[in-house]
Design brief:
Largest sheet: 12 strands, antiparallel, barrel
Oligomer: single chain
CATH topology: Porin
Helix content: 10-25%
Radius of gyration: 28 Å
Number of strands: 14
Number of helices: 3
Shape: globular
CATH architecture: Beta Barrel
Order of helices and strands: HEEEEEEEEEEEHEEHE
CATH class: Mainly Beta
Strand content: 35-45%
Length: 295
C-alpha cells in the first residue's frame, strides 16, 4: 500500500510543479498600478496677466506683487507711448496651508482696496485614482475709497463695495502647455446707470506655453456673456511674456486693452479696443518669500 501511494505521489509531481510555475507566471503578469502623483506647477504664479490662476501661495509663503499699467500707446511720442502715466497695484497673498490662501491689495485706480481668499479644492493627479483637472475656488471683495465727484450727493457705504466669484478649472496638458477656464461673476452694489447690470457674468480663458526654463508666453481673454454690459463694453484681451529668474522671482510683461487690475475694472467696465489702438503696456513683478523653512 505504501508503495502504491509513493507511485501516486511521484505521478502527481509534474502537475504540482506545473501548477507552481503557473502561479509564478500569473504573479509576474500582475498589473502594477502606478502610485498616485499630484501634478504641480500648472502655472508659475498666482497671477496670469490681469486675472489670477488656479495657483495659490504655498503654506507659510508670502507672495508680493507690484503691477503697473501704462496709458494707451496711441498717445505717440508726446506721451512716450503711454509711459507718462500709469495705474499701479500692490498686493500680498499668504498661504495658510498649501491649499488655502488669503490676500490683500491696493490700487490707485479709484483708490481701491481689495482682498480675496483662494481654496484649491482638488489637484490634478496621475496614477491610481487620478484626476484630470485642478479646481480652485476664489471669493473676492473690494471697496472704492475715491471721493465722489458729485459733492451734493450722498451714498451709503455699501455702494462702494463690489464682489467677485471665480472658479478656476485648469489642466497641465504637457510639461510645456497649461490652460484654464474661469467662470466668473462680478457683483457691483452700485452702477452708473439704471440700465447697467449689477450682476455681470463672464467666462475667462487663459493659457501658458513654456519656451524654455526661464521664458514662457501667456494669454488671457475674458468674454462678457450677453447682456447690457456686453453691449456697451469690450472683452478684455491680454498677451505677454513671463520671465522666471528662479528663486521665486517672476517678471511679466504684457500688452492689454484693459487698464485696471481688478475684476471690476477689466471685466464689466473695460472700454479699450485693440483695433482702435487702446493698447496698454504693463508689467507684473512677483516675488515669493518663504516665511518658514520647509521641512
Amino acid at each position: 500500500m505504501k508503495i502504491i501511494n509513493l507511485f501516486i505521489l511521484i505521478g502527481m509531481f509534474p502537475f504540482i510543479s506545473n501548477s507552481q510555475d503557473l502561479m509564478n507566471l500569473l504573479d509576474s503578469m500582475e498589473i502594477t498600478v502606478p502610485k498616485k502623483e499630484f501634478i504641480s506647477g500648472t502655472f508659475k504664479s498666482p497671477r496670469l496677466i490681469n486675472g489670477y490662476t488656479c495657483e495659490n501661495a504655498g503654506k507659510h509663503d508670502l507672495v508680493f506683487s507690484i503691477s503697473h499699467r501704462f496709458n494707451p500707446v496711441k498717445g505717440g511720442v508726446y506721451d512716450l507711448f503711454g509711459l507718462d502715466e500709469s495705474t499701479m497695484r500692490l498686493g500680498f497673498e499668504y498661504g495658510l496651508t498649501d491649499r488655502f490662501s488669503i490676500a490683500l491689495g491696493r490700487s490707485n485706480f479709484n483708490k481701491l482696496y481689495d482682498g480675496y481668499i483662494k481654496w484649491k479644492l482638488v489637484s490634478q493627479s496621475s496614477g491610481e485614482h487620478s484626476f484630470p483637472l485642478t479646481i480652485t475656488w476664489m471669493e473676492g471683495m473690494a471697496v472704492k475709497t475715491a471721493k465722489y465727484t458729485e459733492q451734493n450727493l450722498e451714498y451709503p457705504l455699501t455702494a462702494r463695495f463690489y464682489y467677485v466669484h471665480e472658479l478656476f478649472i485648469a489642466r497641465k496638458f504637457t510639461s510645456r502647455f497649461s490652460a484654464q477656464l474661469v467662470p466668473t461673476v462680478v457683483h457691483r452694489n452700485m452702477v452708473d446707470e439704471k440700465a447697467d447690470q449689477n450682476v455681470v457674468p463672464a467666462l475667462g480663458l487663459g493659457g501658458n506655453f513654456i519656451i524654455n526654463k526661464w521664458l514662457s508666453v501667456n494669454g488671457e481673454y475674458y468674454y462678457l456673456l450677453p447682456g447690457h454690459t456686453a453691449d456697451n463694453h469690450t472683452n478684455s484681451l491680454s498677451v505677454g511674456v513671463e520671465l522666471d529668474s528662479g528663486g521665486g522671482h517672476v517678471f511679466q510683461i504684457m500688452l492689454s486693452n484693459s487698464n485696471g487690475m481688478t475684476e471690476k475694472a477689466f471685466i464689466p467696465e473695460n472700454n479699450g479696443n485693440w483695433t482702435h489702438g487702446d493698447i496698454q503696456l504693463g508689467f507684473n513683478i512677483i516675488r515669493v518669500f518663504h516665511t518658514k523653512k520647509k521641512k
